[in-house]
Amino acid sequence: MSELATPKLRRVGHKGADLIVPGNTLASFEAALAAGVDMIEFDVLIEQHGQRLLLAHDWIDAARRADAATLEEGLDHLAAEAYAGVELDIDLKLPGYELRVVDALRERGMLERTLVSSQYRESLFLMRRAEPRLRLGWSVPKVRRDPFRHRVMLPAALAAVQAARAVMPGRAAAAIRDGWCDALMAHWRLVTPRLVRAIERAGGELYAWTVDDVPLIRSLEALGVTGVITNDPRLFTALG
Q1: CATH number, domain with residue 163
Q2: Residue 2 covered by a domain
Q3: DSSP per residue, the chain
């Protein structure tokens, strides 16, 4: 009997291709496409003093980009023939506009190619009830910014990682089995062989963020994660 082929690592561009072209822009999506990604991740946030849904990570990001694209503009761009076969990961930065995102995807016939992720479980519950066909990702840990980039916060962040590694496999598997998410979007430091096995047995997917180092991408691929999210999708060419 022949062995089953190992699934190909899903190559995901963070904010499009944030280290090639500033992220959450149409130009960054084009750079990610040129780099051969399988999926494009981008952020959606409601504007601070208005109702438009913008492609932005936070309000500071939105404020310094007066020409920030709207969700609708972004989806219309990604609906072009050139992006056929490229999946989407829409990361919702806050609760409150989940159903507007679902409606925008439904209107464009883009539900099947999209995964919507959030740190907020209540957002995932709401979207699951509204549109069972939509794939959902639970993003962990629940942080505004990567705590490992700040030296002062690093000791506490590393201690929190050890605690999270102990409980996350059981929590993630339960969330997938209970049906309120299909994937875990985990900071790469949380990824362990035990987490990979737990999610695989539950029938879910595991994406690691945000990885800008080829040896680390290779190690995560060897562990069996579903996909790796990077700011520079050109790094994937080193994998062959």
Answers
A1: 3.20.20.190
A2: no
A3: -PPPPPPPPEEEEETTTTTTS-SSSHHHHHHHHHTT-SEEEEEEEE-TTSS-EES-SSHHHHHT-TTPPBHHHHHHHHTSGGGTT-EEEEEE-SSS-HHHHHHHHHHTT-STTEEEEES-HHHHHHHHHH-TTSEEEEEES--SS-GGG-GGGHHHHHHHHHHHHHHHHHHHHHHHHHTS-SEEEEEGGG--HHHHHHHHHHT-EEEEE----HHHHHHHHHHT-SEEEES-GGGGGGG-
5 located within any domain: no
Q: What pLDDT is recorded for position 5?
A: 58
Give residue for tokens 């409601």. 46
Identify the residue whose tokens are 């084009």: 30
Residue 6: band (very low, low, confident or very high) from pLDDT cuts 50, 70, 90: low
Q: Would you state the pLDDT for residue 198? A: 98
Residue 1 has a pLDDT of 36
